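Interim report to the steering committee. The following record documents the input for DNA ligase (682 residues).
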Amino acid sequence: MSSTIKDKIDKLTDELIHHNHLYYQESTSEISDFEFDQKLKQLEQLEKEHPEYKRDDSPTHRVGGTITKSFNTVYHKYPMLSLGNTYSKEDLVDFDKRVQKGLGTLDYEYICELKFDGVAISILYENGILKQAVTRGDGEKGDEVTNNVRTIRSLPLSFRQEVPKAFEVRGEVFMPKDVFANLNTEREKAGEALLANPRNTASGTLKMQDSSVVAERKLDCYLYTLLGEGLGNENHDTSLQLLEKWGFNVSPTYQKCATIEDVIAYINHWEQKRHELPVETDGIVIKVNRVEHQQELGFTAKSPRWAISYKYKSEAAESKLLNITYQVGRTGAITPVAELTPVQLAGTTVKRASLHNANEIERLDIRVGDFVFVEKGGEIIPKITGVNLDKRPKDSQPTTYLNKCPECGTELVRKEGEAVHYCPNVDACPPQVMGRVEHFISRNAMDIQHLGPKTIETLFKLNKISGIADLYDLTFEDVNGLLIEEEDLATGKVKKRSIKEKSAQNMIEALQESKNAPFESVLFGLGIRYVGKTVAEKLAEHFKTIDSLISASFDEIVNVHEIGERIAQSVVDFFTNPEHQELVARLKAAGLQMEVTVNEQTAALPQHFADKTVVVSGVFNEYGREELKDLIKAMGGKVAGSISGKTDFLIAGENMGPAKLEKAEKLGTTILSEADFKAMTS
């Protein structure tokens, strides 16, 4: 029987690998998407019932589902060095002269490749199977992210042809521009914060614990390096051709260049054309082609002498400053925004750019009516870098910074030593009040699903809510059929949508479920200035209840581990405000958690770390890092991030940094292994 099931799993696996190969390597299909999905579901079910027969190259790795509590640290067999870079074509000529001098011949050539803006990855294959994927890290060691990398559909998990017994490939994991745009559109609709850029999103996605979420993000990967012994790759272009032959996703944009003049021509060719590609790029990588020449030129301490990176300068354009508007953030911070005549920049239309603060406006001496130079820093965020004074109107007047809140008319304040102006009308300035409600419902705070900024804004406009506590007075009738206005990101037109019955019910249920959120989430959700998630956890852990925190003095708060005077004063100021006291009373009456829930298991743990400071470092087999920290706290300890003279214990896992271990030994810190720690919990 078991043999029959194994045969069935093997047959389905091979069949799906075949169809994947046709789709991703040959751009053709023999079966419909529906048939493929049905076979995949059948294989998933069989593997779930018989995990012992699941293969390392199973296509079900593509959909993820593996949870990784911590990422193992892995040392690279071949160091992943960084490249020297330049913005100057003259520097490239100098580089060419150094290559010529180092080789003592003119008989060499270059390979030029686009520099993709993603995350460097190294992938090991053994016996034709993807075995391990490791991030660049510090160049010597990185994090193992194998489960997440297996979800990249263009990356072979195994091969349909003969390949070397062991080899390593390197490349760049990236998020395609259209995937990034769609992801932000979905987040906008869900009321979630927009992601900054594809590169950071790819990096964060690659380190997610749940590989099924990674699979949904649709990462891709270009490969450009082949390493190993006896591979027959005497030239870099031979390596690229082998990678293409074996089914790897190699960008077809690489080119062999006989001279440095050809290299510069390649750079000029792609300066604008690169914006048409599906991935963000920020430059060109130039490599000496022949491996023998690479070995002869060798390396410096940080980078190879046979390669260099040319970075494109941030693309700039000129636009007219039509107006300066001012936005009010959740904390009351005022951000001036430049409203511009639309201008094309790095493949997108730019209409607005942040001016940051009054100091920046004064530094640039920027005025309405000016023609300004706009750049996209890192090809993502527009910024104004200067003014074309030759075009300044003769009747131009210096900009006078706003002195009253644009939303509520309150006189702005600017604390000594700070660049930003604030509106102090914390409890009545509409954007601040709405911003705090949005913060309260956010994922890192109360994580209330099915509500978003546009819904919150509409509820405010209709006077159905005026603050956080009113959320818990909402009824099904309040939200059912609610008309929400939102801008279509593609057309810029405003559309209306109605909240349907099912969505309304989901909102009310989500609000009820949020009453189970832990005390530290409630505390963070209140939006006390300077109280981030970690600070909220420390305060909740120390004071245990909201009442104890409210009655605490400045001195009592500042004595909490790692809580400074600025945070302590902010907490005192917040809870001495009668309106905030009323808010807490209403949330308490609504049934929210206002004290730390005692875990009976951890409460019974011996207090070995009472009033002791503990540092956790390295990789652990039986514990996740957060789990370890929770146990330390439950045993009376304080967790610190770095070793100092105040550190009492270091819990040392595998692959921890030698410098940290040496420092602990020098300071006389007690060092515990994972086994030592486990024994202390029993």
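The radius of gyration is 29 Å. The committee is asked to note this result when reviewing the revised timeline.
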